[in-house]
Amino acid sequence: MTDRRSFLLISLAGALAAPLPAEPQQVRKVYRIAFLALVSGEDTSLMTALVERLRELGYTEGKNMVFTYRSAEGHPERLPQLAMDLIRGNPDILIAGFGTLAAQAGKAATATIPIVFTNLGDPVGAGLVTSLGRPGGNVTGLTDQARDLQGKRLQILREVIPISSPKAIAVLLNPDTPFTALALKEVKAAADATHTPLKVFEARTPDELSARFEEGMNAGVVGLLVLEDPLTYNARRRLAELAMRFRLPTIYGYRDFAEAGGLMSYGADRRVMYRRAAEYVDKILRGARPADLAVEQPTTFEFVINLKTAKALGLTIPPSLLARADQIIE
Predict the structure, then answer these.
(1) Nearest alpha carbon to residue 296 among 97, 145, 100, 88
(2) Three-state DSSP string of 290-319
(3) In this structure, which CATH number among 3.30.530.20, 2.40.160.20, 3.40.50.2300, 3.90.1640.10 belongs to the domain 149-268+301-329?
(4) Which of 103, 109, 151, 280 is the most exposed place for a label (fewest CB within 10 A)?
(5) Is 151 exposed, middle or buried (0-12, 13-18, 19+ CB in 10 A)?
(6) pLDDT tens figures, 112-166
(7) In CATH, which of 3.40.50.2300, 1.10.287.3510, 3.40.50.920, 3.30.420.40 is domain 31-145+269-292?
């Protein structure tokens, strides 16, 4: 009996001392995230906001995320090849940067890999989604346009310009930008409602900008509204210089224009939009389908006034506008 008890105790002790069978280790998924940009410098101006939000959501480069960035450096003809190069890497998701062309290049390269665009004007008109509410397909994201946005820009410009009699305001646009038709329609509707004459000037390349300003001054325009797109964004410093040379009060879409010397900007807060794009990425990587994620329109806008430029133009900004500004550059 004693020997049997001793044997059992020795056997139990041995079992407790023996190493437990190894449980299968959970392999952490490493997500491959690709980013396609058209605009030069987009990695430094807005990518920080996107990557910061991804990190907050649990994605860290070198641990569970491989982030690949490609930029066409302002040359749209490079986008299709860059998109194909990124898709060949079989990413889990492709993010398309500012403007429509990067998203279109991505969609042309793949009909299966999810694509999230960060901010563009008219995703329906560009053929990227079926509707804002139900995108369909493999593409969704954020649009920087909202109802009455162009009308508010026109209203702000009219408050700054001392118009004693009806004078024309110029609209500068790139006709090759897909959202231009929609934006111009909204500007014209707002102009008609306020009995404001408009003159429309088109530019497809930076070299055409100076001539368009000269044509505007010859036509007697007293203010300018610039419809943003990759062309005008890349030329924002040049536009500010031309507006100063021709002493033409101008309003733009993004704060970057005012920071580059432009008089005023009113539009969506793109930093917020890039953070929201990271949240779309997270949802899709967790199993959501792009087809079911509604395209988001902006709810946060920022109004920036460059007071230094106003003084150089000899303009007095009404106190009511100064009080509404989110930022005043002095």
Answers:
(1) 145
(2) HHHCCCECCCCEEEEEEHHHHHHCCCCCCH
(3) 3.40.50.2300
(4) 151
(5) middle
(6) 999 999 988 889 988 999 999 999 999 999 998 877 889 999 999 999 986 655 6
(7) 3.40.50.2300
**DSSP readout, 105-162?**
HHHHH-SSS-EEEEEES-TTTTTS-S-SS---TTEEEEE---TTHHHHHHHHHHHHS-
What are the tens digits of pLDDT across the range 167-214?
899 999 999 887 888 899 999 999 999 889 999 999 999 999 999 999
Instruction: State the helix-helix crossing angle for 180-193 and 149-160, rounded to 10 degrees.
Output: 50
